[in-house]
Specification:
The complex is a heterodimer of chains A (about 350) and B (about 300). Chain A is built from eleven helices and 14 strands. By secondary structure, chain A is α/β, with parallel strands linked by helices. The chains are: A alpha/beta (about 350), B mainly alpha (about 300).
Chain lengths: ~350, ~300
């Protein structure tokens, strides 16, 4: 077990078995009297999150993100492996661990709708052993921090989805836990609410030293907010690296040259330092030549000049040049595709 | 300590919700009042003049109150728990560091106290309605008996619900009219035993619901049976076939209802402690409470393995 990790998963594995009676088999489509289905939700995952760090857990639907969060919060028991929170084994000291974590689960009713935000914080504070002046002070501070102070006496059922989600984060923070687990916190929210939650996440880790695990489908959120990103595919950990490193992983020095007409690509390909080239007639931006250069910077520079010279020589007008930027979405798609084909970890 | 914190949280929540939705609360109380008055009237008018038809009416009314209590208590652990799993509330409660058992114990205590308060208010209304009827019209003997019974039921319930508080005065008054006899000590003991017996049974059902969510629907039938048993329970049970007797004793509400009826209606007082039904009630508590808690704990672990805490 790592001494510096706030959360650590050591070779954690989870298999779910479901039994079906008198239902159609999903694969064969035939009605069966009984069949048992096995899903390997989490396949021997090991990762850790350090204090003051935001780790993004990305994956398709059913990849095992929520199961991972639930295993950390003690809601699901792993088949094998150990989960540590603040150095404590979740299975052995579950009730103590619960004092160290705040959890916001996706799509569930995390607050009591007939109560106001202030009453909700009071209710959940009492349930979680926070009481008296500490509870009052913390409730006021959290509502102020999350931007719900003016709504503190409005019934939750009258709040918008974004406000409810922000309240759910407040409830998770009422015990002032060092670890915060957020399962798809921005799903279904408008841009403003999503932005507000992202800002608060960054503020919590940078200013309050919280360790945050956030699962999301929103690649922009992950790219903007997360220090590190872990990609889960079919229950397996496909990649886990710092966000910038992960984005740079598939960076292939490709340049897009926007021109007035498609040139002869054989001439471009003949330039030393050019690895590949492709042409595309884009409806919006017009004709475009994509050229992939070698990694070496000086060779790449001279190759780029040579390509431009060739284009000028053949009477093609060069309108603009862009360095093709990889996004987390591109990386995510490539990693999941690669893992599907070869089963290899990046 | 954890129990009292959770209890406080639940009490505050219930009070806020009751106050905030006061119209719904009052409406529900009014509907229950009307239904209960109608029930007593129909029951009394439906019986051909017998030796103790008012006694039977009170017996049935009391049985109904106990039955409804059992119905709602088991309901909280069956359909209530399944509903909590569906909405995600169960996972939230599970993440409380006091544990699910402490949370549900506090919830059932609050639900019981609220149900007692509701029934007390309701029976007071019914009682005063019958009083007005009797005083105004100088009603015949049957109506007077009904008044006495309704009043007796109304007086009995506070003693049943808060035996220490209602205590002596109501006991004397009931003894004076010769119908209801509410001795504080047996009432306190019986009430606590009934509560623990029902809670233990509820925990067992709740444990099963944690893993097998559809049991919540099946439990509705069980709840109806319990209500029926409480309604009809009497010491005539001991004249039945031995198999039926044992099946009836296995239902946790049977002996509780028999004992409460014997103390309230037949002035058993502290003699109830030597009655076989009291011993069966003790056995019921001794069996159902550990079985319920062990089953709930085991099922809770199984539910974590199956991942069904937040699934329906």
């Amino acid at each position: 077990m790592s001494a510096t990790a706030a959360v650590q998963l050591c070779d954690v594995d989870k298999i779910f078995h479901t039994r079906h009676f008198f239902t159609k088999h999903e694969e064969t489509g035939k009605r069966r009297l009984y069949y048992k289905k096995t899903v390997h939700a989490v396949d021997h995952i090991s990762l850790e999150i350090k204090p003051g760090e935001i780790l993004g857990l990305l994956g398709r639907n059913g990849a095992g993100k929520t199961t991972t969060v639930k295993m950390i919060s003690g809601l699901v028991k792993p088949n094998s492996g150990t989960v540590y929170v603040d150095g404590m084994d979740v299975e052995k000291k579950r009730l103590k661990v619960l004092r160290k974590i705040g959890v916001v689960l996706e799509g569930t009713r995390t607050c009591v709708w007939p109560l106001t935000p202030l009453e909700n914080l009071s209710y959940f504070g009492n349930l979680r052993d926070v009481k008296g002046p500490v509870l009052k002070e913390r409730s006021a501070e959290l509502l102020e921090f999350i931007g719900l102070k003016d709504k503190m006496n409005v019934e939750v059922r009258k709040l918008s989805r974004g406000q409810k989600q922000r309240l759910a984060i407040c409830i998770a923070l009422i015990t002032d836990p060092p670890v915060l687990l957020l399962d798809e916190p921005t799903t279904g929210l408008d841009v403003q609410s999503s932005r507000a939650i992202k800002d608060k996440l960054i503020e919590m880790t940078r200013e309050r030293g919280k360790c945050v695990l956030v699962t999301t489908h929103d690649m922009n959120t992950a790219q903007e907010v997360c220090d590190r990103v872990a990609i889960v595919h079919d229950g397996k950990l496909a990649a886990c690296k710092p966000t910038n490193e992960l984005i740079g992983l598939f960076s292939d020095q490709t340049y897009h040259l926007h021109v007035d007409r498609i040139p002869d690509l054989a001439g471009v390909r003949a330039v030393p330092g050019v690895l590949a080239s492709d042409a595309l007639e884009d409806e919006g931006t017009g004709p475009r030549v994509s050229v992939q250069f070698c990694a070496d910077e000086s060779e790449r520079s001279s190759a780029l000049y040579s390509v431009m010279e060739r284009l000028r020589g053949s009477g093609v007008t060069l309108r603009s040049i862009n360095h093709a930027q990889q996004t987390l979405e591109d990386v995510f798609l490539r990693i999941t595709e690669k893992t599907s084909k070869n089963g290899e970890k990046v | 300590m954890g129990f009292f914190l959770v209890l406080k949280a639940e009490v505050v929540r219930s009070m806020i919700v009751t106050r905030r939705y006061w119209f719904a609360t009052v409406t529900a109380l009014f509907v229950a009042c009307v239904m209960f008055s109608a029930f007593i009237n129909i029951f009394l008018s439906g019986i051909v003049a017998g030796a103790d038809m008012a006694g039977v009416a009170v017996d049935r009314a009391l049985g109904l109150v106990i039955g409804i209590f059992a119905f709602s208590m088991v309901g909280m652990f069956s359909t209530g728990l399944a509903g909590m799993a569906r909405s995600g509330e169960l996972e939230q409660v599970y993440m409380s560091p006091h544990g699910l058992i402490t949370n549900f114990m506090a919830r059932s205590t609050v639900a019981t106290v609220l149900s007692i308060i509701t029934w007390t208010i309701l029976l007071m209304f019914v009682s005063s309605a019958f009083s007005a009827e009797t005083d105004g019209a100088k009603a015949d003997e049957q109506v007077q008996t009904a008044h006495a019974d309704a009043a007796a039921v109304a007086e009995a319930t506070p003693t049943e619900s808060a035996p220490g508080a209602a205590g002596e005065d109501s006991g004397k008054k009931m003894k004076a009219d010769g119908k209801i006899h509410a001795d504080p000590l047996p009432m306190v003991v019986l009430f606590l035993l009934t509560f623990f017996s029902m809670t233990g049974f509820g925990f067992m059902i709740g444990g099963l619901v944690l893993v097998f969510k559809q049991i919540g629907q099946v439990a509705v039938i069980l709840r109806m049976i319990m209500m029926g048993v409480a309604w009809k329970a009497s010491d005539a049970l001991y004249d039945q076939h031995w198999l039926l007797q044992w099946v009836a004793h296995a239902v946790p509400v049977t002996d509780a209802a028999i004992c409460l009826k014997l103390v309230l209606l037949q002035n058993y007082g502290t003699h109830i402690f030597t009655h076989p039904s009291f011993l069966f009630l003790l056995a019921s508590v001794a069996i159902w409470t550990p079985i319920g808690l062990i089953c709930f704990k085991a099922m809770e672990n199984w539910a974590r393995s199956k991942g069904t805490l937040g699934a329906f």
